[in-house]
Amino acid sequence: MIVVHQTSDLSFFQMEKTIFCHIGSKLSVAHPLTITESEQKIKAMQQGTINIQTENIFPIIKKFLYSDTEIFLRELVSNAVDASQKLRTLSKTGEFNQEIKDLRVEVILDKDAKTITVRDNGIGMTADEVEKYINQIAFSGAKEFAEKYKDKDANAMIGAFGLGFYSAFMVSEKVRIQTLSYQDGAKAVEWESDGSPQFSMKEIEKNERGTDIILHIAEDSTEFLEEARLNEILSKYCKFLPIEIKFGTRKTFVEDPSGEKDENGNVKKIEKEIDNIINNTSPAWNKTPADLTEEDYKNFYNELYPFTEDPLFHIHLNVDYPFNLTGILYFPRLKNNMEVQKNKIQLYSNQVFITDNVENIVPDFLNLLHGVIDSPDIPLNVSRSYLQADSNVKKISNHINKKVADKLNQMFKDDREDFQSKWDDIEVFIQYGMLSDDKFYDRSEKFALLKNTKDEYFTFEEYKEKIKAAQTDKNDKLVCLYTHSADAHHALIENANDRGYDVLVMDSPLASHYIQKLEGKLNVSFARVDADTLDKLIQKDEEIPSKLSEKEQENLKPIFEGNVNKEKYVVQFESLSETEKPVQITQSEFMRRMKEQQALGGGGMHMMGSLPEMYNLVVNSNHPLISKILGEKNEEKQKDLTKQAIDLAMLSNGLLQGEELTKFINRSLELID
């Protein structure tokens, strides 16, 4: 029987809930007790050991321990790296005094023999160590070693649970271990098992220190006998492991050793077969910022995301208290695109890739960033496939939040002009952060910008001061005018500028939500320039009298209503300046904003998305054209003038299309004639 060895880092019941349920179903008491007998046993405080039948454990490990069978290669390579790191530590402490250069892990595929071998030249194992680390499930040799040498500058260990080796049985019908310890006089041994509780172990001849794990691949896992598949897995999980990993060979071109030159005077290149090393053992995030140039950071970004546009800038994370955290976060050029950017931050633990879904460790808005986070203190489930709840996760998340805000604020203070040049690319990210995290909002108030239609940038306080004199209404409320498109609202913006008003550009996909947030925080109101007439958007004490009486307006109203779709347009008369347009089309700020929020998600107005578009058709009762329409005796001509005025308003709002646009053009030509 293989004994389940209980350790401080994992009892077998800490595995996935599924495993617990299966094991629990197999436990039984050999001699059932009566209630009285049970009470006596409890009073006596009897203690004992729960025995678990290994014939039930192996199928559970194979089926439930790891969510994806490809993980087996990550686990075996990680164990091999640990074996190499242990040897490095022993060399540092003087317990191993031989030369340890050329430490390497090699993955060997033999398609004909249907085997995969993971070979290392690390610390190796004695027969007793095989008995201890292999024959006792959930006993972590890496954990034990790290604990023993924790005060002696031990190299980082990957393994923590003592279960990684058993992932081999997910894809193998038989597994062999051939190993020779670094210790003087050690004998090489071979361990073999077919995945049942039975194993065999014998002495063998092996001349080189280290361990070979030989997997005889099962019939249902032959996909892993393809070179491309193994290369894909190694590149995904092992790309930055600290020990060199070889997988086969590759061809490259090198300079001819003879020095022979071509017709251009350059040394000729010859084809050469070299070892295929799949990993970068010293990634940029493990180096200090002082040792890296901007070019180094860009090169590392291209290593992570080949053939992509260079990022705007980066943040280098390096924390050793109260938790360990390293990493580099890059700001991509977001523009107004949010969705395609997600799941680009890669999470590592001691340089082993874990996942690119880091929603539980960074605030949601930080998922728009790219880069790497590496921390041995991030709690992982037993299969190291995803995060588990832990206080460290929140601490790390808060630290990253603060670090990002501090970086942005420093950039703003150091070179505001450069920061403004990047604003269009990072605006969505900052708005997303301010909407989703109040702490980030508070930190961002110092550097968050507003841009107007003249491409001028302002902090919140600067902008409030700029518009205070002209855009404070009669109720002492500051009104910020904005547009989603300077081109679409060009005429309305010109009109606002002529009145001494400033207009902001709010064109991000988060604009509606962001505006609502700012209204509450800054105690201002926002109004899009097409939400109403200017006199209504920024109400002043003065009122302009109407040249048309109420009776005349009542006579005109059916004429205008007869030329629009009454289900879509509401006709209303307003007393505006003669210089204002004769007809304007506006849309309720509240209704439009709610529909936009609903389209993006949120706003609490789920029914808004299904409501039809509604507009106000505002007739300027003081414009000469309106008086002319009223006085026109020829009904056909009156109708044409009315329709022309309405179509001009629709045209300026981008609402005139198709057949109606064609009729407008033809009518305009007739009026010109």
Explain what the structure shows:
There is one protein chain. An eight-stranded mixed beta sheet has the order 5-4-3-6-2-1-7-8. It starts with 16 loop residues before the first helix and ends with a helix. The longest helix has 24 residues, at 391-414. It has five domains: 12-61, no CATH class; 66-248, 2-Layer Sandwich (Heat Shock Protein 90), CATH 3.30.565; 286-418, 2-Layer Sandwich (Ribosomal Protein S5, domain 2), CATH 3.30.230.80; 449-537, Rossmann fold (3-Layer(aba) Sandwich), CATH 3.40.50.11260; 550-588 and 606-672, Heat shock protein 90, C-terminal domain (Four Helix Bundle (Hemerythrin (Met), subunit A), Up-down Bundle). Residues 1-35, 138-143, 157-162, 381-387 and 603-609 have low confidence and may be disordered. It is of the alpha+beta class. Helix content is 36%, strand content 18%. Helix 1 runs antiparallel to helix 3 (54-65), helix 10 (416-436) runs antiparallel to helix 11 (438-444) and helix 19 (635-652) packs across helix 20. Strand 4 (189-193) and strand 5 (199-203) form a beta hairpin. The protein contains 20 helices and 21 strands.
